[in-house]
Batch of 2 targets.
Target 1
Amino acid sequence: MDVQPRYVGAPAVLTLFDRPILAIETSCDETSAAIVHGRTVLSNVVASQIAMHRKWGGVVPEAAARAHVEAILPVIEEAFANANIDKSELGAVAATNRPGLVGALSVGVTAAKAIAYSLRVPLLGVHHLEGHLLSTLALDAPPQFPHVCLIVSGGHTELVDVQAPGKYRIVGQTRDDAAGEAFDKGARLLGLGYPGGFAIQQEANSGNPHRYALPKGLSGDTIDFSFSGVKTAVLRLTEKEGASLNVPDAAASLQEAIVSVLVERALRAMDRMDSSALTLVGGVAANLELRSRLAAACMQNGYTFATPPLEFCTDNAAMIGLAASYRLARGEADGWDLDVYPNAEL
Ligand code: KG4
Ligand code: ZN
């Protein structure tokens, strides 16, 4: 992707909603509810469906929707209990309404509508990626605007020019698989189960990252990504090595291939955008090797670096509440006909 030039104008000032928000996230395989007040996360409850989807080796949409139906009310109740606030104190309800599995999204949005309607408070639909993007607001020292954000999750690998809250420009992205998919598919091929990112990281701890040379996708001066080649290379490796494959070495080599390309492209984007602040968000941001390598590279280059605590990297409702907060403070709200969308631009 060809990008240039950068933002102009004064740094953005962030005003947040002044009452507690109930936020709900059900776009994929986690049922989550959180209570967020300003930048403070009062509670963040996540019920994972991973154990259920593990038997099929991936997320089954119909099963995910049914599991959300079972979990949603207990999860919301727990979020209120942990935050220790009464429903009457709530100022708004927000829910992820795009993009995601439509059946799964509908469960969260329907619950949000019912609660907002009964309490007569504003309802807001939130873009899942805007949630990831603004998950760094939970940090004690949140990033300044503008900054560059690397979003890496199971469905996305994007470099975003975050000019101001709500003003985003995708400057680099994957041309095929997402980084999380490369971890997940690689883990499946290595017999490490689902979801693969954490399993690869654990296995890689005792492996040699330079044992097997794996392709890094796309050569040249690009800030786009391609991860389909590394997946095929892991398949070939397992076929070639058979029983003699050293699994920890293969996991470490796969992690090395993915992490090094993410770090290289993020730094190139920083240079190209003439930026001095980088954030790292999304499920793959939970990868400890990626976190430490990016942090070290930023320090070396004099950039500030921010990444949320692990619980706000993988899917969670707190990030949805944080993203909702500045929009609600601006007076934005949706009607009772709020719909869900499987695909949506940031
Ligand atoms: O953001 P997320 O929870 O869901 C999506 O919006 O996709 O990201 C899930 C992805 C999965 O591919 C998972 O394998 C990956 O994040 N992931 C990790 C780690 N923890 C989760 N990848 C690498 N290392 C980890 N520690
Ligand atoms: Zn996500």
Target 2
Amino acid sequence: MSNVDSNPTETLCASAAPGGAVAELFPAREVPLGGVRGISVQRVLPQRALPTVGAWCFFDQFGPQRDDMRVLPHPHTGLQTVTWPLIGEIRHRDSLGSDVLIRPGQLNLMTAGPGIAHSEFSIGDKPMQHGLQLWVALPSGTVIPTFEQHTELPLYENGGLRATIIIGSLDGATSPATAHTPIVGAQLDIARGSVSAIPVRPDFEYAILVITGNIAVAGAPLAAGPLLYLGTGRTELAISASEDARAILLGGEPFPDELVMWWNFVARSHEEIVKARDDWESGSQRFGIVDGHGSDRIPAPPIPAVRLTPRRRR
Ligand code: MN
């Protein structure tokens, strides 16, 4: 997906020393696509006071809704896109020549490096009507754009909770997806009545978003909507559910670099953002061509007139 915000502001994501185990709720923000279709997404990352969780720097939930998703070619830099359908199928095409369909339980992972372009379209009789898009910030110097599709991901089970490991590792279960920093992302399917204690890394920070149902995390109730940030310093996560539930667990080593995020770009400076935008608008070879769309593409929004000052995390 593209960042559908029609008027994105520049976000400087200042790194900060995390403060140990916490339990803080960060509400989702509704971001309208604009135009006549009225599609919106629920965004839980980045947040003003929580720009990243590990290297996770962006987390949008699309749907559930009846409209198809049709996202024309658009660019990315400095990040990996994680596309995770929950209901329906989606076709991905990119400037490396990839052209694939994915279904729920499968992962599309696109590593932008200095530049890549892609399109994503719900297709056929099972269009994607509910799905997740996340971005993982790349360390400086990650230069090779790649695309991976993983149709088989490892499962991890603990006390009635079944985790599908999307990227990284959880208690020894490791996804085949390429990670560039110590990280984890997992879908948690939690059976009614389950009680689990998942061993986790105290050097990682973690956060959980409930997709459906109600759960309890470290003793506190959590419903769908907000992101629960859990901080660092934990050695296990106690998760229980009184009804069937699904959630997404994110974690990783706190990301050390200051990031500047704007539209579909992750960079280290305002100048890098301006250059990436100029290169997309001029049709530079940096981003390549996504076949099959003719001259259709998403134009970059205007760069904000005001250069934002750094925001400290907490
Ligand atoms: Mn995209």
